[in-house]
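Regression test case RT-17, inverse folding.

Input:
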């Protein structure tokens, strides 16, 4: 095994700091890619919900029910807490469940 001998401490510190910077860079890239993927997933979910609200307004209750059920298909309490904390009431689980129940009643009525 070959051991590296450094002439002085500054060269050793520079090599160590380069490794640390490379690790930090990789971690930041992974975090940014993860954030992008999660945000894309969330935007698709919001589009589904928006489609549900539009279908409800157009009295297409069957399509609205499918969209609302698909939007509510997340079991994480942390997810719903963050959604309710960061968005308005229209995106909350409670509001969407109310709209789903209303669509089911109106579908039976018509």
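Golden output:
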């Amino acid at each position: 095994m070959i051991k590296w001998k450094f002439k002085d401490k500054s060269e050793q510190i520079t090599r160590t700091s380069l490794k640390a910077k490379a690790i930090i860079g990789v971690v930041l890239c992974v975090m940014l890619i993860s954030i992008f993927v999660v945000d894309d997933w969330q935007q698709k979910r919001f589009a589904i919900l928006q489609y549900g609200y539009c279908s409800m307004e157009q009295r297409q209750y069957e399509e609205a029910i499918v969209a609302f059920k698909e939007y509510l298909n997340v079991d994480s309490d942390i997810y719903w807490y963050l959604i309710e904390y960061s968005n308005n009431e229209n995106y909350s689980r409670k509001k969407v469940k109310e709209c789903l129940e209303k669509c089911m009643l109106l579908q039976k009525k018509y």
